[in-house]
């Protein structure tokens, strides 16, 4: 019986110790983090790095866009050849810039402009050839027949391309109805070469 009393006492003691022990504060169970919507990164459009193709216009509009052919454009209007140079073509135009016209002997351009249907038209038509001829095509030619009907001599020495009395300084300017080769002098048809004022 002693054993039973001892066991009972031991059990009561264990219960008393357990009851006297401070109650632990419950530890909050960890709350799983709430998922916040993270915006998806949006792809920022990257502009293309390639050089855009130049806008190709007809011969007249290309001359206007280049900015150094105001005298030639004035002559084209005076001779009523705007429509022809805007037509389907194709044409090859040897285009003297403003500096080339300024280099003419004094009074020459003014005398031509006095009669737009005479020498002025002849001079302009002498700068024009039917067909689209690149600088490579020109380098292989000795002579071209102009819209005026007169021959225009051509020569090439290395990189230097010469047409008549002028050097091609900017070749192969594209147009929708042909090609422009900028020249450094006004080309004179044979009929005007000796009689130019």
TrEMBL record:
The keyword Plastid does not apply. InterPro entries: Adhesion/Biosynth-related, FAS1_dom_sf, FAS1_domain. Residues 1-21 form the signal peptide. The keyword Protease does not apply. Residues 56-187 form the FAS1 domain. Pfam families: Fasciclin. Residues 22-50 are annotated as: Disordered. Keywords: Signal. One of its GO terms (cellular component) is extracellular space. Residues 23-33 have a biased composition (Pro residues). PANTHER family: FI19380P1, PERIOSTIN-RELATED. This is Fasciclin domain-containing protein. It comes from Litorilinea aerophila.
């Amino acid at each position: 019986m002693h054993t039973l009393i001892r066991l009972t006492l031991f059990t009561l003691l264990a219960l008393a110790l357990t009851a006297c022990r401070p109650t632990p504060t419950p530890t909050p169970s960890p709350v799983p983090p709430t998922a916040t919507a993270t915006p998806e990164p949006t792809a920022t459009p990257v502009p293309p790095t390639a050089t855009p193709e130049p806008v190709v216009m007809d011969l007249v509009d290309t001359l206007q866009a280049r900015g150094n052919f105001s005298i030639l454009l004035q002559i084209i209007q005076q001779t009523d050849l705007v429509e022809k140079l805007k037509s389907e073509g194709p044409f090859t135009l040897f285009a003297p810039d403003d500096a080339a016209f300024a280099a003419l002997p004094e009074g020459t351009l003014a005398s031509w402009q006095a009669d737009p249907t005479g020498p002025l038209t002849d001079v302009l038509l002498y700068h024009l050839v039917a067909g689209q001829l690149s600088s490579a095509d020109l380098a292989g030619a000795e002579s071209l027949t102009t819209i005026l009907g007169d021959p225009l001599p051509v020569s090439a020495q290395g990189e230097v391309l010469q047409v008549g009395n002028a050097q091609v300084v900017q070749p192969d300017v594209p147009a929708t109805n042909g090609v422009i080769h900028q020249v450094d002098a006004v080309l004179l048809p044979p009929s005007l070469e000796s009689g130019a004022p």
